[in-house]
Design a protein that fits this description.
heterodimer; A: mainly alpha; 0% strand; elongated; B: alpha/beta; nine-stranded mixed beta sheet; three-stranded antiparallel beta sheet
């Protein structure tokens, strides 16, 4: 990244008005371009992840695995992304995880509704078993 | 925000919007089926085996992939362009800054120059005020009449009157010795009469005389071939062209013959100021008059209102030639109470090749109005024999000099001295030599003005009073002078 100070100066000095005005304008322009560049980079990685998800979805054999595994991968990436400094690898991870989640949300929800009975049974069973275990441990103590 | 940033922003927003559309649409086909009596709708990959197909809603998998690809390309393009712009933007900004600074410097320089000019103008005005307060009359600025020509040819500019000096005894040179003569002065100064007198002498000397005068009256320019009368500028133009041819032919003869003889040709151009600009050949003619006529026995007399080249047929660029080639005579005038110009009987003569400051004053014969026409007439009075009373005849060997010899100049000086006797005594004038004083004294004595008047004119003394002894001495000197005259 180049800064204004890095550019060789060939402008004669005519008081403070002109440089101040020019510098303010340069700062504004630089800030705008930086924002655009960063969002463009994020969108690029996001688009790569999204396109990958869709391509996987287009292959029927891979659909179940992708639908089940990719959300988990996305959540893991988000958690890891927010646990460190937001440098470029973390930006990439954040973009990819967001892309995986947003690309498979329909499949995920459809799977959840399709297996709702089984998942509910399992959940109730786990709650009951867990509750009983906790109760027994508490009674013993 | 610049236009580049705006375009990049739109591209980014479009790319992100395509992502939004791609993610919101269902990817897979939605199949409606029945299992037993129960009817369900699931994506195609969740349809169980044995289900009875009812209907299908197509998904948007292809469109989602396309939008995703477009959005990805858009975002990467935005990123790359923005990053590149971020690199070159400081340079662009420096260019903008430099242009701003250059414009500012230019404006500052303009303001500085205007300020300097104003200060200079103010300084000149202030100096002029000081001069006026001290009694001096500063030379007027020519800013109001300056033209591009006057800047391109500085020698053409109007020259203010200078301190031309009076040489006692000086007289008009023999004009026949000069191929080019320029007589100028305001109306009523005697220019035209000067020309008429001059051509009369040249005719006597055998010259062929051509007078170019669009305002020529009946019977004017006697003895001369008058061209252009009645404002016939076409005829003047043709005559000027003929003159150029004649000069050329004469030079051809000079080249081809050992000793060719020509009849001297004198061309008088009256009121050159008025018609010079209307004839396309006038500038060429003026140039020829300054350079090509001498060897061909051609003589040119230009009569004009001014010596500026703008008044001489727009012959701009020939100022140096004019100064070097023309004998110039400026006729002086007096203004009466009504503002009318009357002849001053004096002229300033500038010899060719001499600066204006070396002009010398010569007296000229008095010119009196005609008895029949008192309005601005330049005619000279004549006696019963037809000869001029005021304009002495030239000597036979001095043809072309209507104002006589050096003695005539002394006569004119005496005439001026007689106007106000005693104001400027002859023997008290340090500018005159002893010989000149004696000659003037002889002229005055010969006029028989009386002893007292003569002594008053010569010594500025009157009889009686405390200076009576000086008067007595002057009387004795006068007696000796009279004896010398009678003895000589």
């Amino acid at each position: 990244m180049y800064l204004a100070e890095d550019v060789p100066s060939f402008t004669p000095s005519f008081g403070e008005y002109v440089p101040t005005e020019a510098r303010n304008k340069l700062d504004e322009m630089t800030r705008c371009l930086k924002i655009l560049g960063n969002w463009g980079e994020f969108g690029g990685y996001f688009g790569l992840g999204l396109s990958g998800c869709f391509i996987v979805r287009a292959i029927p054999v891979l659909i179940p695995g992708a639908v089940i595994l990719t959300p988990a991968i996305g959540v893991a990436l988000i958690i890891s992304a927010f646990n460190g400094d937001c440098d470029r690898p973390q930006l990439i991870l954040l973009a990819l995880s967001t892309a995986i989640i947003s690309g498979n949300w329909d499949a995920w929800t459809a799977w959840l509704f399709f297996n709702a009975a089984t998942l509910t049974t399992i959940a109730i069973s786990l709650i009951l078993v867990g509750g009983a275990v906790v109760f027994l441990i508490g009674a013993k103590q | 925000m610049s236009i580049k940033s705006l375009i990049l922003s739109i591209a980014l927003v479009g790319s992100l919007s395509s992502f939004g559309v791609a993610t919101s649409l269902p990817f897979n086909d939605q199949v409606t089926y029945s299992v037993g009596k129960r009817i369900e709708s699931q994506p195609s990959w969740l349809v169980p085996e044995g289900a009875k197909f009812k209907s299908i809603d197509r998904g948007y998998g292809g469109l989602k992939i396309l939008l995703s690809a477009i959005g990805t390309a858009g975002c990467f393009s935005t990123m790359m362009i923005a990053r590149k712009q971020l690199v070159i933007e400081p340079f662009c900004q420096k260019l903008y800054e430099f242009k701003l600074a250059a414009d500012t410097a230019f404006e500052m320089a303009l303001i500085e120059m205007k300020k300097k000019k104003l200060l200079e103008a103010s300084e000149v005005d202030f100096e002029n005020q000081i001069f006026r307060s001290l009694g001096y009359n500063p030379q007027p600025l020519l800013t109001g009449t300056q033209t591009l020509d006057s800047i391109a040819h500085p020698g053409d500019k109007v020259a203010a009157s200078d301190d031309s000096h009076c040489l006692p005894g000086a007289s008009m040179p023999n004009l026949s010795n000069y191929p080019g003569v320029l007589g100028y002065g305001p109306q009523g100064s005697g220019k035209t009469f000067f020309g008429e007198q001059e051509i009369a002498r040249r005719l006597e000397a055998g010259h062929r005389v051509i007078a170019i005068d669009p305002h020529a009256g009946f019977n004017s320019w006697k003895g001369a071939e008058v061209v252009g009368a009645g404002m016939d500028y076409e005829a003047i133009d043709q005559k000027l062209a003929w003159l150029a041819t004649e000069i050329k032919n004469r030079y051809k003869r000079i080249r081809s013959e050992p000793n060719p003889q020509f009849q001297p040709l004198t061309i008088v151009c009256d009121e050159f100021t008025n018609w010079g600009n209307r004839c396309k050949s006038s500038a060429d003619f003026f140039q020829a008059a300054l350079s090509d006529v001498r060897k061909a026995q051609c003589f040119v007399i230009l009569i004009s209102h001014a010596r500026t080249l703008a008044g001489l047929g727009k012959a701009a660029g020939f100022a140096d030639s004019r100064d070097a080639g023309l004998l110039e005579i400026e006729f002086l005038v007096n203004l009466d109470s009504t503002g009318r110009a009357t002849p001053r009987y004096e002229a300033l003569v500038k010899l060719p090749g001499t600066p204006l400051s070396d002009r010398f004053l010569v007296p000229i014969a008095k010119i009196e109005p005609k008895s029949t026409d008192s309005e601005g007439s330049d005619k000279i009075s004549t006696d019963s024999t037809g000869n001029s009373r005021n304009l002495p005849q030239s000597e036979p060997e001095n043809l072309g000099n209507p104002y006589g010899t050096r003695a005539d100049g002394l006569e004119a000086y005496v005439n001026d001295a007689l106007k106000e006797p005693g104001k400027c005594p002859i023997f008290s004038n340090s500018k005159l030599s002893d010989e000149q004083k004696k000659e003037i004294a002889k002229i005055i004595i010969n006029r028989n003005l009386g002893v007292e008047n003569t002594i008053l004119i010569l010594w500025g003394l009157r009889s009686g009073g405390r200076n009576h002894h000086l008067y007595v001495e002057a009387r004795e000197m006068l007696d000796r002078l009279i004896k010398e005259i009678q003895g000589g």
